[in-house]
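Q: Structure tokens for this one, please.
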Amino acid sequence: MKNGKNILSEIEKLAEKRKNEILTLPDAPTSCGCVYFVSADGDDENDGKSEATPWKNLSRVSSFEFAEGDEVRFRRGDVFRGFVKTRPSVKYCAYGVGEKPRLYGSEKNYADPDLWEIYDSEKHVWKLQEKALDCGTLVFNGGEAHSRKLIPSYRGGRFVCRYDEEKEFIISEEMTEDLDVFCKIDSVLTEKPSKGEDFPIPALDWESRGELYLRCDAGNPGEVFSSIESLTRRHMFFVGRNEGVTIENICIKYVGTHAISAGTTRNLRVEGCEIGWIGGAIQHYAGTDPNYPEGRRGSVTRYGNGIEIYGGCDGYTVKDCYIYQVYDASITHQITTNGKPFELKNIKYIGNLVENCVYSIEYFLDENRGVDGSVIDGCLIEGNILRRSGFGWGQQRHNTHTPAHIKGWSYTNTARNFVIRNNIFDRAAYRMIHTVALDGASCPKMDGNTYIQHRGGVLGRYGENKISEPDDLIFDENAEKAVKEILGDREGKIYYC
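A: Here is the predicted structure, written as tokens:
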């Protein structure tokens, strides 16, 4: 065990250097097809085929039928709002000079006093004057502050307090902190049974809008702040099953679900991107959930990852990206198989800087109906700087005991050729690693990683759960021994702070 008094300063400098490298990566055009340009002062009636005739909006990009090998270039320094439906074997990248092009999920900057009206002057609660999509949170002045999102349950045709379902959720009474936000979206209900009970709950889709309330003690939020951005309930890049998609040198921010969302696909590559302030929107209401850790009460699921593949893959690379302030995971590959075999192959997460996400890197293979032949085959997590897991805005979640830098949960997680090496794990609000599998041979090989954690904090959980769950390892005087003998990381370096 080594004292980490000076190591945090060194890591801070290293992370800042890495961030600057990522933010200033040069463009690398590689098109073997047509090239299309998009700029903030373009026109969607243009042909988009030159810098002099660019398109303007993301909707134009989404609707166009690109050919394989085509390239879409967004002008650096510009802001684009909306989302992008990708096409197979198309590259989405940057051109020009300056900062990476910024693609925002937020529909507008809400720092306009005309957009807000007072709802309760005594409690300083304001209401947005237009209907809005659900949001994960609101971000003020580029990250100087953010909202606490209130999540009531929905029972008996009304919103009720989540921790006291006998009590009706009254907006002004429950918005007790400055910058609290609540999205009231219940215009469409479903009668689907939930956990054996049949009662209506709000049904959300990509177009569901409702009323947005914000407590702002300092006055009209449009006057108090110069920037108010909503983590809006949408993905930025819809990849789906499209193969061969590349996303390079793009800044993606203020997205309430996933910045980049893919299903079963091949050869997805994300490189040199900045991805921040992601997630937290409501995925679904689910009525009463008796399995919730806090007991029998209404279940409201929030979600949102930086880059996600949900399904199988063959070729999935995330390299040289700066990812921060994500509600769930910065990067993940995952699937619950439901008895259908999946292969997740040739996965590489290399050289990324991740800060203040609940899970720095997540993976899981949940063979929930028994072992069905699914496998993670060839996964390399190398040279990443992973910092402050669980210290970001996403930790306003209810399950505060889940954060980890490497989050594999405790599923079957059948894997081979799985290596985690030469990474820096810099503090975690809970576990540093959670890598458990039914068979111990499926656990990743740990090699040459650096572990920095508070004395008495949790190192993590590693090993097989064939009979029972492995014990948590504590970051105490035995941590070095645990890293070398239990994790098998003989070259690992240990520091406490």
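A few notes: The two ends are 11 Å apart (CA to CA). The chain has a mean pLDDT of 94.
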